[in-house]
Amino acid sequence: MAEVVLEVQDLKVEFDTYGGVIKAVRGVSFNAYKGTTLAIVGESGCGKSVSVQAVMGLIPVPPGRVTSGIVKLRGNNILGLSHSEMNKVRGKEIGMIFQDPMTSLNPTMTVGKQITETLSVHEGIGRGREAKKRAIDLLEKVHIPEAANRVRHYPFQFSGGMRQRVMIAMAIACKPSILIADEPTTALDVTIQAQILHLLKDLQRENEMSLILITHDLGVVAQMASEVNVMYAGRIIEFGPVDDIYYRSQHPYTIGLRAAMPSSEEGAKRKLQPIEGSPPDLFHPPIGCGYFDRCPYAMKICESNEPEPFLVGKNHYSRCWLHHQRSQTKLTDFIKQDTKIYKNNEIMS
Amino acid sequence: MILEIKNLKKYFEIKKGEFLHAVDDVNLSIQENEIVGLVGESGCGKSTLGRTVVGLYDKTAGSVSYRNQVLPKSYSSSDFWKYSREIQMIFQDPYSALNPRMTVKEIVAEGPLIHSLWKKNAINDKVAYWLNRVGLPRDHMSRYPHEFSGGQRQRIGIARALALEPKLIICDEPISALDVSVQAQIINLMGELKESFGLTLLFIAHDLSMVRYVSDRMAVMYLGALVELGPSYEVYYSSLHPYTQSLIASNPEPDPEKERHRKFIILKGEIPSPVNLKPGCRFAGRCPKVMDICRGTNPVWKEIKPSHFVSCHLH
Question: Is A156 exposed, middle or buried (0-12, 13-18, 19+ CB in 10 A)?
């Protein structure tokens, strides 16, 4: 296995709101390795964005607070660093790109200035000719045509796809070892998404970056990831290598997500199977399994006891009581009926 | 034929004498009880087309007929009153489409009350019925939009459109703001509504893979014009236009093994500006199969196979 660059252990994040305390992240642990892509998938509100914001020290305090956890960057804890210490990490060690490039770029500054700002903070490069040259180089690297000219333009003069390229240029300016991409292509069209994903892959290969990709799109994950965290209601409910997650999904939620997604295989005839209901209210997090209310295979124990992660394959974990060795019901009892998509699904012992 | 769009054009004047060709000569007919998917990238004019059909925009040229009755070029408020019972719209953004100061009950009941369809004492039951149809519990009707998630809000928008019992609904990207598991709920709901109410839908979206599950036919739009139209499975599995092909090829599938062996057709560049279009095929600048003829001559709209149309010089 490649070198561990980032280690997150038992991260918990809460927010004070008018409605009470919302427990957005309820104990999340994962590792990110050099040169590989870790995807964090889940639906909106599952805590995937909040987890990485906590890693980056971007949780607004108040109303938010990180109540527990360790975040180690190459062995050194970075959680709870002071603002100025964290500024040395952000942009230099860890780069980040956001979903909406329009609101995350400064509309009143030229893109060239915004790129050089990162460089001047971390590498002490002034605002002169050298900085400008670096900005142009970076814009060229993310394939923005006529970079020498475009460096003087403002964000509003760029299209959505081009703005995302500018964001990427800023994020990689200092060659960070980790790039966190929070829904980087959600706001983009598919043909532009394909361009951006390709670019991210190329840059990753070139700099041996560890890419943490947050998305709700299982197609994007299939294309990009080597390992996948599936999040639900503030927890990672399944983790494993990408092939195991797709072909040998073990958690009922992951299985449900796959059935709800279109895929080109089955022709037009298969009906999509939605997951009924909605995620639990995190003001009052469930005592048992977060997926209990929606789970078609729920058992008595699931309501009151939260399962620990069970090892279900090589480096593949799933938090579900069905995997307990003495469980009366087995996943195979159910998934035999759903013929086509789950044909690869067999419980590994 | 419930809806017939003939040579419809919608231009926006952005400067004196400079026009943005948002919808340029579109022909599309929709049968009763049919779902037609209209797909294309942002800025291709698909939403403008939908909005022009329901009268939110005036038509620059061409005509739209509803059950052989030509709809007015420019809607007056009485026209909206007249046609909104028959033709409804569901909007893309479930956050801005609902009035934040109205309760769900007021939102859903507003249309039927304007049209005097519901008796005052039956409102609660009627609202509860429609909420139930879209999968929301009765006791949600006294809440305000901000208390709901995106998927729930979209359902409220759908309930509002359905409450008038229209014949035709224009759905403008009703699922693109929603989560995967919820998208499937809405897609299936649309299919059920088609069956149980005999609804006709024009389903606008940017995601072909989802839309083909619900639509009988699919139309692909690029830069204001239709480039391909045909039965959904044909457009998806044996598409004829290079643009449709690249749309399908760019869409990542939830299958890692397939993704590893995917043959990418990565389009260069982005949709050009729809202002001052050059003659020739609109897609010529990005097309991987471009020929000399494409840059000078407009391709014609041809029926290549029964009811499968395409405008491309390759065919």
Answer: exposed
Closest CA to B288 of B246, B240, B257: B246
Q: In terms of Cα–Cα distance, which of B198, B69, B287, B255 is closest to A261?
A: B255
Tokens of B188: 């299936």
A223 and A211 Cβ atoms separated by less than 8 Å: no
Which residues in B lie closer than 8 A to residue A198 (C-beta atoms)? 264, 266
Closest CA to A335 of A229, A221, A256, A222: A256
Could B179 and A256 be called an inter-chain contact, meaning their C-beta atoms sit closer than 8 Å?
A: no
> Hey, what are B40's tokens?
């294309």
- CA atoms of B281 and B115, how far apart (whole Å): 46
Taking alpha carbons only, the member of B172, B237, B173 closest to residue B207 is B173
> Tens of pLDDT along B215-269?
899 999 999 999 999 999 899 989 999 999 998 888 888 888 888 888 777 777 7
H or E segment at A7? strand A4-17
Contact B181/A275, CB-based, under 8 Å? yes
Name residues of chain A where pLDDT drops below 70: 1, 264-270, 333-349
Q: What angle do CA A294, A296, A297 make, to 5 degrees?
A: 120
| Chain B residues in contact with A220 (beta carbon < 8 A) | 252
Report the residue of A245, A261, A341 to disrupt the B interface, i.e. the one with the largest count of B CBs within 10 Å: A261
Contact A220 B252 (CB under 8 A): yes
Q: Which residue of A191, A248, A269, A294 is the best one to mutate when testing the B interface, meaning the one whose CB has the most B CBs within 10 A?
A: A191
In B177-196, the residues whose Cβ lies within 8 Å of chain A are: 179-185, 187-188, 191
Question: In this complex, which of A159, A160, A268 lies closest to B212 when CB atoms are compared?
Answer: A268
Maximum C-alpha span of chain B: 69
Instruction: Yes or no: say if A331 and A347 are a contact pair by the CB < 8 Å rule.
Output: yes
pTM over 0.90: no
To 5 degrees, how large is the angle CA A173–CA A175–CA A180?
90
**Residue B305 touches partner A, C-beta closer than 8 Å:** no
Q: Is residue B255 within 8 angstroms of chain A, CB to CB? A: yes
Of A42, A12, A35, A6, which Cα lies nearest the Cα of A245?
Answer: A42
Nearest residue in chain B measured CA to CA from A220:
B252
Give the alpha-carbon dihedral of A93, A180, A221, A5, to 10 degrees: 30
Question: How far apart are the CA of B117 and the nearest CA of chain A, in angstroms?
Answer: 31
Q: Where are the alpha helices (DSSP H) in A30-91?
A: 48-55, 83-89
Q: Which residues of A touch B287 (CB under 8 A)?
A: none
